[in-house]
Amino acid sequence: KVFVYDLDKCNGCHNCQIVCKDEHVDNEWMPYAMPQPDTGQFWCKVEEEVSGKVPHVRVNYLPVQCNHCDDAPCMKGHSAVKKRDDGLVIIDPVESKGQRDIVDSCPYGHIYWNEELEIPQKCTGCAHLLDDGWEVPRCVDACCTGALRFGEESDFADELKDAEDALREAQDALEG
User: Is the sign of the CA dihedral 16, 144, 62, 56 positive or negative?
Assistant: First the structure.
């Protein structure tokens, strides 16, 4: 499974960020996650980029969370980090206790250190909900514009290819 973002649809409502906090702060979802601290961690966060000058300002929003990488760097040398059959990368909260180096293994900065519990933490893709029959994680369920989606990679194959082609064209234009 994959998360797919349509940046043209995101209006910066922060619903995804808010429901992630609601789902994980003060809640334990073993074996996937211990409670997320109420401050300092954003397993799902909406970043904004402002460009232009008043009165012509453009704001772009980008939901940011764990990429659940195919070849996840956080898994290398860490038996506490595993990829599920559905594609979600999970850090075992019991097995990872004291392994602060897992935080540093993520080149994207999407793994956080819980000082109080002494464990690395990140987005679980709401694995506990998916295992309980939910079709999508809370962040996707709360997205009012359809900018954030979740499903089988094959269902998004065409638009993922289009996005890769557009990225390649943009990179070529910058280099050329």
Answer: negative
Distances, alpha carbon 30 to alpha carbons 34, 58, 112, 124, in Å: 7, 42, 18, 11
Question: What element of type H or E holds 3?
Answer: strand 2-5
DSSP β-bridge partners for residue 59: 50
Tens-of-pLDDT digits for all 176 residues of the chain?
999 999 899 999 999 999 999 999 999 999 999 999 999 999 999 999 999 999 999 999 988 999 999 999 999 999 999 999 999 999 999 999 999 999 999 999 999 999 999 999 999 999 999 999 999 999 999 999 999 999 998 999 888 888 788 778 888 888 87
Amino acid symbol at 73: P
